[in-house]
Design goal:
178 residues, alpha+beta, two-stranded antiparallel sheet
Amino acid sequence: MAVQDYGTRRSRRLWTPLIITSIAVCGTLAAFVFTGFDLARFELAQGALPPPSGPELARARPAAEAEWRIVRANLDARLKQTLPLELGAVWSTRTGQICGLVNGRGSFGGLSSMVRFYTVDQKPVFHQDVEHVVFQKAWFECRRDPYVALHAGTLEPGFCGSEAGKRHCYTTRGGARE
């Protein structure tokens, strides 16, 4: 009867690290694949919402314009402007919230710059009114749902988005002035 040789102890020990390393590599690759799919799913869920169809827009526009008239009056009162406000883009979301940009005059009478706002209970909320995280989250929700356009204008905040800024700012492409 022949005795079967199962290999030396040394050859069996070489397989153990190889198996453990293979399991670790496969687990790491699976984690990367899962993370990639999860990130893609999250990005699709957070993307811009589809625009309204013709009948939906026709139904939503009168309510949005009525809401905008109230918000516009509250915006004028809040900013205490003697001259008409310079507005950037203004829109209503599916929930009826009004969002947009406005260039108001500062306490010294000069135009400040285009600043973002959204509404809560028909009152404008600016960045300095709430915590940074709260404003950014609300603004993100506004930007992903421009349902009814109420005023065409810029989406660029700051000085360059204003009328005066357009005359003084310039764009560059590849480091060269356009």
